[in-house]
Amino acid sequence: MRTSVVDEARFDEIIHAPLRLRICGLLRPVDRLDFAVLRDALDVSDATLSKHVKTLVAAGYVVSDKAASADRRDARRVMWLSLSRAGRKAFDAHVRALRKIAGDAAT
What we know:
Layout: H1 13-16, H2 18-27, E1 33-34, H3 35-42, H4 46-58, E2 62-67, E3 78-83, H5 85-102
Antiparallel strand pairs: 1-3, 2-3
């Protein structure tokens, strides 16, 4: 019996970096997240988060979109981040690979 590509465990060097793993983990259960909310949740600077988001965007794992916010009175726009379909698949496969590596310790 052949394993479905969806069920494959695949270690991903791009996602595995600790901050990028946390970014993907926070984005996985939501449709999108405000850059500032993600920055605050991770307790990192704008520059640090931007650097890691840029890597994930270049890999096709994260999509960013700027939009006006009804909560703001100025002209600045909110940057929304979300995992792409490829990002979700890669993150899920990476988590499966980590569980496989951990073996019995993960259960």
